[in-house]
Amino acid sequence: MKRPFTIIALLLVSVPGMALAEKKGSLLDLFTPPPSKEEKANQAQLLDILNAFKPIVADASEATVWILDNDQKLALGTILSEDGIILTKASEVEGHALRCQFGDGTQHRASIERTFPKHDVAFLRVKRTGLPVAEFTEEMPIVGSLLATSSPGGDVSGVGVVSVGVRDLSGQRQGYLGISFVGLQGKLQIQKVHEGSAAAEAELRNGDILLNIDGETFSTVQTFAEHISMLEPGSAIQVGYRRGEKEAEKQIILGSREEAGDLFDRANAMDLLGGATSKHRTGYPQVWQHDIGLAPFRMGGPVVNLEGRILGINIARSGRVKTYAIPSSLVLEWLGDSPKATAEPKVQGLEQLLRELEEAERALNKANKALETLPEN
């Protein structure tokens, strides 16, 4: 159902990608001057604008939950079914003792029922029925269109616009070791270990000779680079190397090229000044982008259009004004692939068949009665 809604034109001209500030107390607060009169006025205006969107996010907010480990907020979750299926960001919740906190303040234990690793998505299960489910739309987001994100309890966590349509980022999800080589008599010698890389954390050094990776040898830089790029960030590899006269092995957890770019790319470095970004923030096969700067622990919640329908699920804060969302059409596709969803058409078909058999039986009985009234020959 469409919601009547008006908004002042200056909203998106003056304040793109507005989001609630995440206040974290620190010693720096002691040295931070109090906000000026102008800053207070701007904050009040921002709050008024966010509050104006409350009617739009109302349904989505009811279907939004916090995913907790004790009192720690790990992520948001979006309720997908009345019987307790909840979608969230997998990398933020895996390895934790999970509880879902609903808008009414109640908490229930949750377990991971299914994951979609390429999309960093997890389906959780809670033992609760009669849950509110917001309406999804299969419409593709239109660049420049208004949208809002919800929080449990009816709050608006951000307002902004669609900045980039649906695209494939899977090519950016490549493993990264962080070393440069030179050829040396058929071996690869480390010329430089990049600061902050997986190789640096493993304490590899300039001048080390690469012997093998997981037992496989490489004679050229190209074959080495191709091998590493085929591996996912987070993969564990066993690196054999020689330092001086001694040979050794180390297990190294690969980083990602995108994260490594932040060390040298000024634009990415500027993005980081806008606040924390998600640890896993790229490489998704199908996402669209908006400009609401949400904190990483607010991933997993819905983003809605002005009709209050869910356009997508926030999956990664990638930059200062760069947040990725998984399109609703993909979520609906996953739901259609679930055992429950695939069973429903069969049940409906069986019911239809039973009705047809009943009608045929009634028709047969009627025909038999008609035959009984015919005169005998």
- Total helix count? 10
Q: Count of DSSP E strands?
A: 20
Unreliable parts: 1-15, 23-30, 262-272, 338-350
Q: Strand arrangement, largest sheet?
A: 8-9-17-20-19-18
| Second-tier CATH architecture of the largest domain | Beta Barrel
Question: Radius of gyration, Cα only, in angstroms?
Answer: 28 Å
Instruction: Please write the CATH class name of the largest domain.
Output: Mainly Beta
**Can you give the helix content as a percent range?**
25-40%
* Apparent shape: globular
Could you please say which CATH topology of the largest domain applies here? Thrombin, subunit H
The SSE string, one letter per element, is HEHHEEEHEEEEEEEEHEHEEEHHEEEEHH
Number of domains: 2
Residue share in β-strands? 25-35%
Quickly give the structural class. alpha+beta
